[in-house]
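User: Here's a chain of 308 residues. Predict its fold as tokens.
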Amino acid sequence: MHGSDIDLNLVRAFVAVHVEGSFSAAAARLGVPRSTVSRAVAVLEETLGVALFHRTTRRVSISTAGAALFDRVAPLLQALQASLADLPEREAAPSGTLRLTSTVDLGAMVLAEAIARFSVRYPNVRVEAHLTNTVVDLVKESIDLAIRVWSKPLRDSTLVARKVGTLAIRLYASPSYLARRGVPRAPADLDGHDWIAFRGVPPLLLSGPTSKATVSVTPRVTGDDMWFLREVIKAGAGIGSLPSFMADADVAAGTLVRVLPRWLAYSGTVYLVHSGRKHLPPKVTAFRELVAEMLRQRPLSGPDEAER
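Assistant: Prediction complete.
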């Protein structure tokens, strides 16, 4: 065994014997049998090739080599124990750095407000938000919590997902576009229209009150950011699908119109996702509860947009 491979428990036993002055007192301090302490010191002596204590029937005194070792390791061991005791994750109140991820649109509509509330409530937490439309490996990227949308149940057994809402995606167009190209009354009327689409999205499977319809889409404009696509749609370039929470204000203002309002382009479940480790830090549980409560008070989708 090399010095760098020495078990720290052996060092702790050695330090305790010197500080307490006996093997029995050291065992009581460490909460282990006397034989455990004696064996630990013996193993350490054998590993280092030196005698650390002079033993008699009445007393134990430290050797020259033992004193030199104590001077070197005792401050380091004390600092290590203090560092472990002061870990932010072990504190009752949230602290440390909280690393989050979500899509860009959910980040702007959900995370921004949640982070603002959280920062006021927990000033000892520093937040890092990673917004991307690419699915991030939470463990590899050391992400504490993600907001994700799935249309099917989570299958990764290493993750824990908590449902916090429903996301509905519908078809929208600007009043000027519909005045120019006509208002579709049924899925079949969508053929020949100009489409604004998220890059890589497959053909639309529309869900109606009593049936479904597949619509093949050949987009004239594609993009990888929903905010950009919304502005293109509002400018009159064509019909596109948007999350309802991004379009509701424009519909109310008259700058966007729902196309085929009784049909749904997509419905998914919004989850808060984190690793399945046993002990979640307070910062993660506190943020998870804050977001869940916020979305209960103000859902992303209205009551008429439940999953079908």
